[in-house]
Design a protein that fits this description.
Blueprint (H helix, E strand, L loop, with lengths): L2 H23 L6 E6 L3 E2 L4 E10 L5 E9 L4 E2 L6 E4 L1 H4 L8 E10 L6 E12 L6 E11 L4 E6 L3 E3 L2 E11 L8 E6 L4 E7 L7 E4 L7 E10 L6 E12 L2 E15 L3 E7 L12 E10 L5 E2 L3 E6 L3 E8 L3 E3 L4 E4 L5 H4 E2 L4 E10 L14 E8 L2 E8 L4 E8 L19 E11 L4 E9 L4 E8 L6 E4 L4 E9 L10 E9 L9 E5 L3 E6 L4 E6 L3 E4 L2
Parallel strand pairs: 2-9, 11-18
Antiparallel strand pairs: 1-3, 3-7, 4-6, 4-8, 5-7, 8-9, 10-12, 12-16, 13-15, 13-17, 14-16, 17-18, 19-20, 20-27, 21-26, 22-25, 22-28, 23-27, 24-25, 28-29, 30-31, 31-36, 32-35, 32-38, 33-36, 34-35, 37-40, 38-39
Keywords: Membrane, Transmembrane, Transmembrane helix
Protein name: DUF11 domain-containing protein
Organism: Candidatus Nealsonbacteria bacterium CG11_big_fil_rev_8_21_14_0_20_35_11
């Protein structure tokens, strides 16, 4: 036998031994089957369940298994980590040949409509007798089929250049799960000048919204001036979503366009002779609405509709000359047969209508949603529309009360008062504020010379109450009063002790113990100064 033959024979033997060793150490991953079962489609916020299933179809035991389940992106996880690990002990130990096991994972998905949400499962194990650990992975895709969330932009399809545009962003959740950390954002077109919004925006284009349960919603109202060329389209884009760990998760988008049209009518109004009138409760409002033909053709057979909105209006006081008022939708209608300028309005001609309506002295404040009130007048003439808003001041009120019994302090002496006998008594002051935030609230009154200020004040700390012995003025600096103070919640109050000793000369049937108190404050909504006067305090002497 030649040396060459022996050499090749040895090579073949070595290759056979190597193949046998490699085969003994190899393992087909397909022998252990891993899959995820779950819904192919799901609604946003719907509670869904993933089932991870694996089966050992081989002849070797899978030892020390570990399962990693990765939830889809933007899943709602109450206390679970994004990637959940199940140890060998959690999985029930080694996986024997023919054995099948399942594990369930529940979550809710967030995202936009038609978005693909991918769950991933990874199983790591070591076949018996082998030193190598193997890894199997699989994924499952769920499509967000429908978003049970209504989100719309509401504004007219056309507007005249340079006119005030007021539009609304409406939202309503029908998701069977409470949503929190909601944010609405809007992208304005060029040439839109933001004026104000309700509620107030963070940076003119973003609002943090309160949490929503199923069936709850809200509205954002934005006002501004839109400029542009005739027939130009201006596009508004809004989106709403949830902040989750500094990531904005988009829920819904809304896009709407408005066309700039050439004006044919110029409409403006003034109240009590002032286009920027700031109204107050109890006011009688004289509305004058002017309309001018700024087009190139005469206008005929016009109808003017004025629709009033606002809790403060007293519609029963309305007087409209030659206008027809409809209680319910609170609109006044004028036609050409009543107003000649509506019948025929030549180029550059101007017409006018007017009416009177009162504001209630006070109206109910149910919640902070009634904060920062406005009165609105939506005017329509043919295709021309204009909306005017006027701010309404808050109402601050105060009260002063006397207590001859022990209240805040220990009082003493006769009551009713008796000549030549000293009586100690307490005066309590309180203030409340209705509709707008009011800052720098002060209450002051002049103490009659027959009454002594004893220096006892409640509360003892930070009362903000002082007495000037020269002017005999008692001054209480109550500070800032948020809207609804003393109406929706507890207001502010203070108390102080006084003394009186009537003489025979000063003893009258009614004796003045404290003059009328004046209350003032700075209205933060209307930028005006508010005032209120209380009644004076008097009492009897025997």
């Amino acid at each position: 036998m030649s040396k060459k033959f022996i050499f090749f024979f040895i090579i073949i033997i070595l290759l056979a031994i190597g193949f046998w060793y490699w085969h003994s150490q190899s393992y087909s991953k397909e022998i252990l089957k891993l899959e995820i079962l779950g819904p192919e489609k799901a609604a946003l916020g719907e509670n869904i369940e993933y089932i991870v299933k694996f089966k050992n179809n081989g002849n070797l035991r899978a030892e020390k298994p570990e399962l990693f389940f990765e939830y889809p992106e933007n899943s709602i996880l109450e206390s679970e980590p994004k990637i959940k690990k199940l140890s060998s002990e959690n999985l029930g130990g080694d996986i024997y040949p023919g054995e099948e096991r399942t594990f369930k994972f529940q979550t809710r998905l967030l995202g936009k409509e038609a978005e693909a949400k991918i769950a991933k499962a990874t199983l790591i194990f070591q076949p018996k007798g082998l030193n190598q650990r193997y890894e199997l992975s699989t994924t499952f895709t769920t499509i967000l089929e429908k978003i049970l969330f209504n989100f719309t932009l509401d504004f007219p399809s056309t507007i005249e250049a340079g006119k005030n545009l007021t539009f609304r962003i409406n939202y309503l959740s029908n998701i069977p799960y409470p949503l929190k950390d909601l944010t609405c954002q809007i992208q304005y077109p060029s040439d839109f000048e933001f004026k104000n919004s309700k509620p107030q925006a963070l940076d003119q284009s973003q609002w943090n919204l309160p949490g929503l349960n199923e069936g709850e919603g809200g509205r954002i109202e934005v006002s501004g001036i839109l400029r542009g060329e005739s027939k130009e389209q201006k596009i508004f884009k809004a989106k709403i979503g949830i902040w989750e760990e500094d990531e904005f998760i988009l829920l819904k988008e809304a896009v709407k366009g408005v066309e700039i049209v050439a004006p044919s009518l110029y409409i403006f109004q003034q109240i009590n002779g002032n286009p920027q009138y700031i109204a107050s409760s109890g006011n009688l409002l004289h509305y004058e609405i002017f309309f001018r033909n700024v087009g190139e053709e005469p206008l005929t057979d016009l109808v003017l509709i004025s629709r009033l909105e606002g809790k403060g209006f007293d519609f029963y006081s309305l007087k409209a000359l030659r206008g027809n008022f409809q209680l319910g939708d609170n609109s006044i209608i004028w036609e050409g047969k009543q107003i000649p300028k509506l019948q025929f309005l030549d180029v550059n001609e101007e017409g006018k209508i007017e009416f009177w309506i009162g504001l209630k002295t006070q109206w109910e404040m149910q919640s902070l949603a009634d904060k920062n009130p406005e009165i609105r007048n939506k005017i329509t003439i043919s295709q021309a529309r204009e909306e005017f808003s006027n701010k309404v001041t808050s109402v601050i009120k105060g009260e002063q009360q006397t207590f001859f019994e022990d209240k805040f302090f220990d009082n003493s002496g006769p009551y009713p008062l008796e000549p030549n006998k000293k009586t100690l008594f307490t005066v309590a002051w309180s203030v409340k504020n209705y509709y707008n935030d009011v800052n720098n609230v002060k209450m002051r009154a002049i103490l009659p010379k027959e009454i002594n200020f004893l220096g006892k004040i409640w509360p003892k700390e930070n009362a903000g109450l002082t007495f000037d012995s020269l002017s005999r003025e008692i001054l209480w600096e109550a500070g800032d009063l948020p809207a609804g103070s003393g109406v929706l919640n507890e207001g502010k109050s203070c108390a102080f002790q006084l003394a009186i000793e009537p003489t025979e000369e000063t003893a009258e049937k009614d004796i003045l113990i404290l003059n009328s108190a004046q209350i003032s404050g700075d209205d933060q909504w209307t930028k005006t100064i508010l005032n209120f006067n209380t009644s004076a305090l008097k009492t009897e002497v025997k």
